[in-house]
């Protein structure tokens, strides 16, 4: 990582943070604190990034990506840590990488794929949903055929 990588990444993420509605220009630092709280990271990590002092670690990057609604892949590439060659997207015709690969599984699809009995889906969804920052939209369980 070069100083240029840090500057470019910080400028990009600063703009993204503002577009997501975080007031990071306030002298009181309310937007930075809110972002840090929502991402579950230390405010100092946000401050160091915005002041172009250091790149966030991988876990902080992952958490920020989720809160800001961007793929971790994009964050890693824009930060200069990895290249597009390091993180290739699946080709459209790859066997396992069909249309489902481009979207997140719903908790219902996960329950079905894991073989959770239909009468236990509600409990599975409640428990599994607690581990997700934002659970996907839920559908009513399908009856076993």
Automatic annotation (TrEMBL):
Taxonomic superkingdom: Bacteria
UniProt GO molecular function: DNA binding
Domain (HTH cro/C1-type) ranges: 35-75
SMART domains according to UniProt: HTH_XRE
Signal peptide: none
UniProt xrefs under InterPro entries: Cro/C1-type_HTH, Lambda_DNA-bd_dom_sf
Coiled-coil intervals, chain numbering: none
Annotated protein name in UniProt: Transcriptional regulator
Organismal lineage: Bacteria, Bacillati, Actinomycetota, Actinomycetes, Kitasatosporales
